[in-house]
C-alpha cells in the first residue's frame, strides 16, 4: 500500500501502523505543522513520552536517527529520514484554552487537541490520556535562558519525515489549527504508509 | 502545621495539599534534585503537564512567578519563591531503564519513577499515569542546537522553592536516586506545609 492520504486543514486522522511499516508525513504546501501521538496498539496505556525521548536521545530537537520512546522506555519509532529537521516535544497540542489564554480568542476555535481526541476516541483513548505530541515541522525557538518563541515553520512544499515502526502502533496526526505555528495560514498534511508484509 | 519532614535519600513521599496551602521544598545539604508530580485530588486524571506549562509560561526554565499547569489547562500551583532558580520539565524521572540504557548499570537500582509509583499507588494512581515530573534544583543544560547535558545542581544547603496550591492536590516528591543529577552523592530532601485553614 502506498496510497497518499490527505489530512484536511484543521483536522486529524488516526490509523494503525504495524511493526516494520514506514510512515511518511509530508508538508505538501510548506510552513505547516503536524502534531503526532503514538500508542502501543496492544496496550494503549503505553504511549509516546517526551521525557523519555529527551532522556535517551539527549536532545531537545529530534531528527534523523533519533527514536521516539514510550513511557515504559521502549522504542516506538525510528526517524529514518527528515528533510526539514526541526521537530520537538516542547509545547502541548494547541487546545481551546491555548487560543483563549494566549491569543485572547473568543468562541470556538478548532485545535490539535480536539482533533487528536476526536480521532483517538474510537480506539478507546480518553481525553486525559493524550500525551505531549511530537511537533513535526514546528519551529519552536529557544534561547539559553530557556525563553520560547514559536516562529513560522522553515519547511517548504514537499518536505517530509519518515518513521519506521518498532512496535505495532496506533498513530494520530493532525494538520495544525493554530495561526501562529504555521505563519497565519491553514494547510493540509499528507501521509502514506509502506507496509513490509 | 509547619512540621519539617525529611525524605530519606533515594526515596519519596506523597501527601495532600489543600488549595491555598504553601509547600516549601528544601535542599538541606546542597546539590540534590527532587522530582515533583501533581494530581487534582478530586479527579486524578487531571495532572501536571509539562507541555501546557511550557506553553503558557513560554519558558523551558520555570521559576518564581511561574505557574505549573494541568493537562486540562488549569493552574495547579504558583511558584512564589525560588532561591536557586534552576528547575525544568525536560527529562523524565530516572527509572531502572535510565540506569541500564544510559549508565550501563546491571541489577537493581533505586529510581525516582519507582519512588513516585510506590508512594502514589495508595492514592489509586497507576504506573502509566505518572506524568513528566517537575525537576526541582536539577541542572539540565542545553545549547541552541538542543543538545542536553545534566550537570551537578547549583543548589547550596538551604536553598528552597515555595509553591502555593491553586487547587486541592496530591503531591509526590522524591529525593533523587541518580548519581549524575546530584554530583555523585545521595542526599535527602526536606519539605514543610503551611496551611491556610
UniProtKB/TrEMBL annotation, chains A, B:
<dbReference type="Pfam" id="PF09347">
    <property type="entry name" value="DUF1989"/>
</dbReference>
<protein>
    <submittedName>
        <fullName>Urea carboxylase-associated family protein</fullName>
    </submittedName>
</protein>
<feature type="domain" description="DUF1989">
    <location>
        <begin position="6"/>
        <end position="170"/>
    </location>
</feature>
<dbReference type="InterPro" id="IPR018959">
    <property type="entry name" value="DUF1989"/>
</dbReference>
